[in-house]
Amino acid sequence: MNWMKKFAMGLGMIFFATSGAAQSPVAEKKGLTLEGAKKVIAAAVAEAKAKNAPGGVIAVVDEGGNLMALERLDGTFAAGAHISIGKARTAVIFKRPTKAFEDIIRGGRTPMIALNDFTPLQGGVPIVVDGQVVGGVGVSGAASAQQDEELAIAGANALAGPAPMSAAPAPVSYFDKDQVAAAFAKGAVLFDGAGGRNYMVHASRREKGGMAEVHTRDTDIIYVLEGTATFVTGGSVVDGKTTAPDEIRGASINGGETRRLTKGAVMIVPNGTPHWFQDVGGPFTYYVVKVR
């Protein structure tokens, strides 16, 4: 083999090695350290003290659901440790807050409770760093389920870091009066959340009552323009079925609170809350701002 062939083979081997390195089949992953887990717990404990929480157990697990750290505040019931670990594991394995699953089951999808190692109780939150889920934090035994979740969020946020600045502000959206009138004439979406924004705007119209609904991710902010309606919130959905991702529909609502909506009224329906336009008197038009 002459020197030219050896040189060519050497170049080929270098190219193969460098191209293989550039296309590595293994992705770089972040991992939660013990120091990070302690930081999550410290932030949750600080939040508990700020809210004068009567107790609570904070559990932190890694991305595989393995327990890394746990702290039980004075006055917390004994089972709190087991429950908080279950919440943290559920949050990290499914990469979603556990409140979403509690809402889905409350909405009628009860077969989900048959899943193994599954704790669908509010108070578990994934820990996300630079877009990667690196662990989960679960809290149990505070004053309420809502407070459990608030402490868990405070803990998870301790590692989240500041939100990245966007390269440029989003463009302004404008709809003239004719576009708005046309949307309300038939009921339509004015803004669909394009560009990754976490909100939508609907120009809604109803002529009669509808199905019971649960939005597991979206909070509805309703402003009534014209007409009247009987509106039910809370309770439980009858014959609830998942009709689309994060959306549940049912025939009606058992229990709940009934209100009469009229022109100028504003309602805020948090995500996960069953709601139902039970009865509508004539054309009923209203804005809905959906916030995710």
Question: Short description, anyone?
Answer:
The protein has 292 residues and is α+β, with helices and mostly antiparallel strands.
Task: Explain what the structure shows.
The chain has about 290 residues and is α+β, with helices and mostly antiparallel strands. It has two domains: about 35-160, 2-Layer Sandwich (Beta-Lactamase); about 175-290, Jelly Rolls. Helix content is about 30%, strand content about 35%. It has six helices and 15 strands. It has helices at about 5-20, 35-50, 80-95, 100-105, 145-160, 175-185; strands spanning about 55-60, 65-70, 125-130, 130-140, 190, 200-205, 210-215, 220-235, 235-240, 240-245, 245-250, 250-255, 255-260, 265-270, 275-290. Strands 5, 6, 8, 13, 14 and 15 form a six-stranded antiparallel beta sheet that branches. Strands 2-1-4-3 form a four-stranded antiparallel beta sheet. Strand 10 (about 240-245) and strand 11 form a beta hairpin. Helix 2 crosses helix 5 (about 145-160). It is globular.
